[in-house]
Amino acid sequence: MSQSALAAGLATLGLDLPAAAQQKMLAFRDLLLKWNKIYNLTALRDPQQAISHHLLDSLVILPHVGDGNLLDVGSGGGLPGIPLAIAHPELAVTMVDTVQKKSTFLQQAAIELGLKNVAVHHARVEEMSGQYAQISSRAFAELALFVSLTRHLLAPGGHWLAMKGVRPDAEINALPADIQVEAVIPLTVPGLAAERHLIILKVGS
User: Fold this and answer.
1) Residue 170, Cα to own-chain centre: how many angstroms?
2) CB 26 within 8 A of CB 86
3) Any alpha helices (H) in 71-142, and if so which ranges?
């Protein structure tokens, strides 16, 4: 049932993932729910719901993810970082979380799933170094705070990918003057009856 639900959702999103990647997605879902019993990584307990609310909700932004290295901030249970890493094996994904137990889970998930393109940091993002072409977050912080905490990590010409629920107009209006909104993209997630938006930001010239 899980496999057909995932396959149907991917087809609706127009995503063509190999069978091995789909199996890995479900293995990640199972790991997340298993560790969740001890570590409280997600409020969801239902394996079917986890397909729509976690896997597909992460993968819906895949068409808007470029090839440059990606930093996923406040990764928590690995969303969207791990589904993106599974779906796009050439994409270098770095995940960071301040909570030790969450970064431990992320490290273990990357090892068990054989994700060679994933790196995990237990750190405060404002103390990190490096340069990333893309910086993503899912329900991490208000846009202005997200930008200010990660600005030193964005490579020249890079983009922020902020996953939000309802269109966050107040947050957009509160952005610093030199931050440009490149796109506000409404997203439809199969099996999820809630608003979703992807906000793509960049530093203006």
Assistant:
1) 22
2) no
3) 81-87, 100-112
CA dist., res. 25 & res. 82, Å (int) = 9
Q: 200: how many CB neighbours lie within 10 A of its CB?
A: 17
Specify the DSSP element, H or E, that contains 7. helix 2-13
Q: Report the percent of the chain where pLDDT is more than 70.
A: 99
pLDDT digits (tens, 9 = 90+) for 47-71: 888 999 999 999 999 999 999 999 9
Q: Give 3-state DSSP helix, strand, coil % of the chain, rounded to 5.
A: 45, 25, 35
Total structural domains in the chain?
Answer: 1
Q: Is pTM beyond 0.85 here?
A: yes
Q: In this structure, what CATH number is given to the domain that contains residue 9?
A: 3.40.50.150
Q: How far apart are the first and last CA of the chain?
A: 50
Q: State which residues form the domain around 102.
A: 2-203
Whether residue 38 has pLDDT greater than 70:
yes
